[in-house]
Structure formats: C-alpha cells, structure tokens
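Teaching note: in complex prediction, the entire set of molecules is handled at once rather than each chain in isolation. The prompt given to students was simply: 'Predict the structure of this complex.' The entities are:
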Amino acid sequence: MFINGMGIVFAGGSGIEKFEGALAGPWVAPNSHNEAGLPSYQADLAGAGRQDLLKKIRRADKMSKMAVVAAADAAEDAGLENLAAHRVGVILSTAHGPHVTTFKFLDGIYDYGEEEVSPITFSNSVHNSTCSYIAQTMDIQGPTLTVTQFFHSFYNALSLASLWLADDRVDYALVGGVEQYGDVLSWIVDQKLTTAKDGMIKPFNLTPTPQVPGEGAAFFLVSKTAMGKAYCQVDDIFLGWDADRAIKADIRVIDSDGMAPDESAYLACGSSGVPMAAYSPLFGSMMSGSAFNMAAAALTLKHQRVYPNPVADNPHNLPLLPKDFGVDINRMSCLRFDCRGEAMGAHLSRA
Amino acid sequence: MPENSDRELAEIRRKIKEILVEGLSLEHWTPEEIKDDEILFGQGLDLDSLDAAEIAVLIQRNFNFIVGDPEQTREAFYSISTLAEYIYQNTQGQD
Amino acid sequence: MKYEPVVISGMGVISATGGDLAESLSSLEKGQRNFLPKATLFPTSLDFPVFQASSLPDRYHLEGRRSISLALCAVDEALAEAGLANGLDGARVGVCLGTTVSSQLNDQKFYFTLRQEGAAPLEPVDRYVKMELSSYIKEKIGARGPALTVVNACSSGSDALGVALSWLRHGVCDIVVAGGADELSHIPLCGFVSLGIVSPSPCAPFDKNRKGLNLGEGAGVLVLESQSSAKKRGAPSRLRLLGYGSCADAYHLTAPRPDGAGLITAIHRAMMEAGISPEQIGFINAHGTATPDNDKVEGKVFQQLFGEKILTHSTKGYTGHTLGAAGGIEAVFAAAFLREGWMPGSAGFETYDEEVGLAPVGRKTVSDATHALSTSLAFGGNNAALIMGIE
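The expected output is the structure of the full assembly:
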C-alpha cells in the first residue's frame, strides 16, 4: 500500500506545505488559551483552501469541516480527480468524535427542553456525519466507515484501508484521523492528566508527558500501487510491539503526547539505539495524533530530509533524532502505545 | 387594524430572516439580502428537508407555538412571506 | 477473487424480543410485540412507544454503561454456542462491534453539573474511557487480537461484521466476535423526535400509513471464524457469513438517495462476494425502519433486483430501531431463520403501499431458503448489505 497524497488541517494552517513548514521550523507556542487559562492548539479554517467545498456544507460542525478540507486536499495532492468515476472508500478515525456538537445538543435539552432540540445539531452529533459530508462534497460513491478505539483509532483505520485494497473493495482509500478541541474535554484532560502549563508538550519526558489539547484532521490517499508523487510505502501495520523483535528502522516516530497518564512504555523504544522523533508539540495532544506523526514520517521518506524534534528535552537519555542525518532514510517505524501498554503502529519505507 | 397587521407581519418577516440565517447557518446570506417573497425550498434559499425540521423547532422556540402536521404546513413553508403569515395567524392572541 | 467462506459458529442476541435467541425466536414466532407506551429507562415527557430489553439479567448491570451490559450478555451467549465459554483456547480473537450511543461522552448529569458549577465528579468520564465498547469486551473475554468499534450510525452493526470478514480473510485473527450493541438513550430519542421521524404508535414497516420508527435497544453478536479454524476446533455450525457490501449515497445527511443507487451497489458487492445470483436469495431481512423514506427506497430496490415476490420482512416491528445494534441483531435473526426454516410475519404491516412496491410477509412463513440478505441504511447515507448462507 502506498501513500499517494496527504491533506492536513492543524493549528499551523491547512495544507501539506504549511505542515512541512511547521516541521522544518521551530516550536511554536499554543495559539489559544481558554477562560481557565488552559492552552490548546486550535485549527483555523478561515485560510483553508477548498472554500468551495465548505460552502456546500454550511450546516457542518468544525470537526466535519476540518475533515472535508483534509480529505479533499489529500485527493488533490495525489492528483486524483473526479472521484465519482473511481472506486474510492473513506475510513475516518476519531477518538472522541463530535463531542462538541454532542454537548451543544445537550445544551438544547437543557435550555429548551426535550421537545425543542435542534435536529441539525442532532444530525451533526452522529459520528459518521463527517464521512457523510466527505462523501457528499467529493461525490464519493463507495464504502464509508467511521471507527473509534481511543489510542489506536487511526492505525486500525489504516489497517482496514489496506484490507479494503487487498479485498479489491476499492481502488483508492481516503483514510484519516480527526479530533476537535472543546472546553469540556480540555477541562477533563486537565483533571485527569498533566497539562503543560507553559504550553510545551515534552514528548520524551514520558513519566508523565505534559499535554496540550490539539485539533485537526490528517488524511491520506492510499492505493495498492504508487501514483505519480507517492510519499512512501506502508509495509505493514502491527499490533503489539517489543524492542527485541522490532524491525530495524532508520528513524522511529513515537506518538507520545501526554494523552495517557504514564507513557513510560515508549522508553523501550530507545534501547535499540534507533533515533527517535516525536512531533506532537507542533499540533497538540490528540489520540488520533498518530495520523499527523505518520504524515511527518511520510514527508521524511519522500524528501529524504530529517525534521528535528521540535522539543528535545531528554531526561531519559533516549537516542533522539540528530539534526544531521548523514545516510539515506529507507525505513521508518511509527507507533503509539495505549494506556494498557499495548502498541499499534506502521512500518513505512521509501516508495 | 390592517395597518397594525402589516407592521406586525413586517416585523415577523424581519425576525424570521435573522432566525433562519443564524439557525440554518446561511453563511452566504445576510438577513437584509433576503427578499420578503424569497422562496425557501428548491430555489431561493435552496433549503431542504433537514432545514424544514429545524425551522419547525426555531418557530417553536421563538414564537411559542407548535408547528402542526407537515402536510398542512407545506404551503406555509413556501416563502418568507407565507411563513410570516402562518406565524402571524398562530400567534394572534398571544401576549 | 475467491473468498473463503466464514463460519458463524455462535450467535447471541438480546432485545425487546427476549434475553437470548431461543426466547427471541419464541416471541417472533408468536408475533408478540413487546413495546412500552413510553420509555421507562429515563424520565421523559416524550410519549412515543419504545422497545426496551427488559430481560437483561441483573448480573450484567454496569452503572451508566447499559450498551456494554447488553453487549456482554449477547457475547456470552454467542461464545457459549461457539464452544468458547471456558476460554479462547489460545486462538487469536478480535472484537469488532458497532454502536452509536456508547461511543459518546453524553452523560447528562455530568454535563449539566459541569455546565452549572464549573466542575463535576469524573466517574462518568472514567466509565466512558475504561469501557470503550470493543476494547472492554476484548479485555473481558481475554482476547488477544485487534479491537475496533464501528460508529457508522444505523449500519454500524452490519459494517462491524464486514470488518470481521476482512480480518478473517486476511488472517488478522482466527476468530472474531462481531456485531452491535446500543442502549435506549434519551439523547437519540430527543433527536429523532426533533427530526419528525418517530412514530406515535407502534411502527408499521412497509405499510402505506407508516408514521416513522420506534426506538429500541439490544445487542446482536456473532462468533465468526474461518472454515479451517472451525474444523480444527470441531465447531459444527452450518451457517456462513458469505458476503458484505457497503456504499455511500453521497447525497444527504439525513435522507436516503431516492434511486437507492448506493444500496444497490452494496447488495451487488455482497452477492459478488458470496458468489451467488439474485435468484438464490431466499428472503430479505430489510432495514425496514418504517420511516416513509427508508421503506420506499428499500421497496423500490428489492423489487428492482429481486422482483416483487421476494419474501421480505422487517424485524423492527418487534425490536424497534436499535441503531448501532440493528445490523448485529438482524444478522443473528436472518441466520437463525435460515436454520429454523421459517421467518416471522413483518409486524405492523396492513396496507400495501404502491410507492414501496412490495408487501412484506404477513405472518410466520416457512421457507427452505439457503441464502438470506440483510440490509442496513444509515443516517449519513451509508448502505450496508450482508449475505448469510446455510449448508
């Protein structure tokens, strides 16, 4: 399976160029603080391309809008046009789904009573409304699926995309992750986890990693064969990981971002000496942040360019990715541990 | 008195336009751009069945009466003007 | 492409029809409709009939996580039939369940307290995080394979079974526990009422005077495995899950595509995977929610693909619309009807509707069908089709 196109909406803007710019640049502080002073990385859709598509979905919530822009960008990036003429499927992963809209619906019950709630808000609070908007705006008449599994939401979706391709169910799949920022969730994670009061996620602190809620969508257009400007190949998607049996990779991208109270499982990744990278400080803490880290790995392979760790605090002396990486980068490994210490991830190689 | 009712109808139309722009996220309209006889469905504002369900709730919330059977309200939901008349008739006698 | 048949080695179901498959079949056979005039699981002023799973045993009770309780109940029954009640025997087992309600952090007491007071006790959040549907079932039964929850609205259960087929065909795991589970919740009740598609009387799928759906709850779970795995374990089932198809309408957030193009594509794909032609479909367990739009589209499509004589029924008249559980419950029912050799009358139907173009079976009907189709049409426009067979 090849990654042929990518689309990203995050706090730094929308589009692969913006994401690449963020990877190449210095760490940037969170762009938002709520009334309680809690930091967050929030996406701004005002400057996003594809306003034509957004115009078609006036009723959609921000979660759907971010995903529509990212999915459309991924298809365009791959050079795939007229999607109705192809067999395209969509698999969307999200840990928390449209929680902001769900709370808005609950506000309706509270403020107006159960007989005066908004049908539009209810419709948007259903998990797969986002896939519906993607299919509608891009005229995708193929299978659409929304999945969730907290930490492993994205890699499960990616795995399923590879099976859909192998099954000949589709010729192309748009697979992605999306999370929306909300004050309620921000309050909850501040209660349950360690918030980075200075706004800086330190992904190698691990015990714990301080978190800053993020927001955004990352989509990939994948297919069995490489298209014109393929980023990389996805060799396999694995469930369960141990340092001894791990495939030798040139660089390992870890998804540590403070979304689990204890991320010390990642310490084992350092034992093999494989240089480690983590990009969560650029887009924020999100359970489907795996999609953003994998996008960084795909860019690394395609451009043969290392993106140094945006935050390199290293209290455990892990082998961090050096700024100068003299050799070819042929294989990358991306992984995320869940709060039970089980890993899921993907191995990528040069296209 | 007819003059009074004309004034009230105009006020209802103005209010509906504001409510619809906000409640239906009509991002590319301002209330002022919407004509009094603007058609709601299929053309004009180009609304659909989900908007219709929302309009029923918006009327309930803002004008304090329950919108009846969709069959009976079909004509009322034709344009801004017909909707205003429908609301006017159903709010007569309210404070 | 050749697809290895997947064996259904165990089934479990709970809904208003009963707490297990035997009890459910007994009330379906009698045409018994166990609805309540209004919901009793939560306080509400909404007077609409609902179908509650009143026979959920107390031992499954989990505070604030009724969907998980329902799932556990059905999972236990399915594992017992599959001969896996006492452990999974070293097999690599995956869990893939569909839901709508349990995937959302929607505890009203928590949210309203937080909204008013700026803080709230976090137990509901802990429950939501610790009891993620598929992960929790995986942990509970000691499975070592993947866990994934499908949140595809009303086709979630069918789509979860489709994911299971993919996993088994590609050796991701040996056995999959798959289906759907959803509790009757105040939130979708308010939502569906606001959309104007809830019937004030017991629902009447495919009837000319149908007024909409009734909400229900339950869980339907299948234990699926490759033929080689079933053989190795000596699991004797004759039932097979043969094909799955899914296709989006790309049309509207809440209304189905009037020409049913997405549903047709999904059914074609499922038949292709099953390697069968339309004449081989013995009966259809339709989505049949009893909303005006849904039944019209399904009727049209079935008539077009299978002719108006095709034996069709909806079990929603007995279970209500169980949302994310529906695909799982109806797959269990359709497979059970193949095994039993009969299907129930489609409850609520009285008057033929020309716009639907077919009449569902009116009373319990004997059938020697070898293949059954089950369909699901989701909010958001996804269509799913499953084909079950018996050897």
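Point out the following to students. Chain B is about 55% helix and 0% strand. Chain B touches chain A at residues 23-28, 50-51, 53-54, 57, 60-61 (CB under 8 Å).
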